[in-house]
Amino acid sequence: MEQLVVGADFGTEGVRVRLFDLSGGLKGYATEPYWTVHPGPAAAEQDPQQWWSAFILAMGALVSDSGASPDQVVGVGLDATLSRGAGGAVGVQEIAEVPVVPVTSQPPLLSSTT
Predict the structure, then answer these.
(1) Looking at the domain 4-105, which fold is it?
(2) Rounded CA separation 51/21 (Å)
(3) Domain ranges of the chain
(4) 12-45, pLDDT tens digit by residue?
(5) Could you tell me if 70 and 5 are in contact, meaning their C-beta atoms sit under 8 angstroms apart?
(6) Alpha carbon of 8 to those of 37, 75, 114: distances in Å?
(7) Which CA distances in Å does 103 have to 19, 40, 79, 89?
(8) Mean pLDDT within 97-110
(9) Do 15 and 55 contact (CB within 8 A), yes or no?
(10) Pairing mode, strands 73-80 and 4-10
(11) Within 13 A of 8's CA, how many CA atoms are on the CB side?
C-alpha cells in the first residue's frame, strides 16, 4: 500500500489540504472556506471550531476525490495564520475541549516597493 502525507494550510479565507506521496508527488487537493469577521480596520476574527469543521470536510473531499484510503496517510503537517496579539494561542475550555473565544488577528504590515 502506497504511503501518503497530508499538508493543511489554515488561511484567512479557508483551509487548503493537499495529499502527497513520499516522493513529493501531488495526489489530491481540496479546499473548504470559513468566515472571517473584521471587527476593526486592521483586525480579523475567526472561530476555531469552524477551522476544525472545515478541515474535516476538506479531508473527506480529499480522500473521496483522490481515491486514497485514510490508512495510507502516515503523516499530517499543519500551517496556520495565528493571532500575533495572543502569541498564536487559542484558549480551550478544559471540560468541553472547545475554543473559548474567536481568535483575533491583525494583518501583517505591508510595505510598497514602488
Answers:
(1) Nucleotidyltransferase; domain 5 (3.30.420)
(2) 25
(3) 4-105
(4) 889 999 999 999 999 999 999 998 888 888 777 8
(5) no
(6) 22, 11, 33
(7) 27, 14, 15, 8
(8) 54
(9) yes
(10) parallel
(11) 21
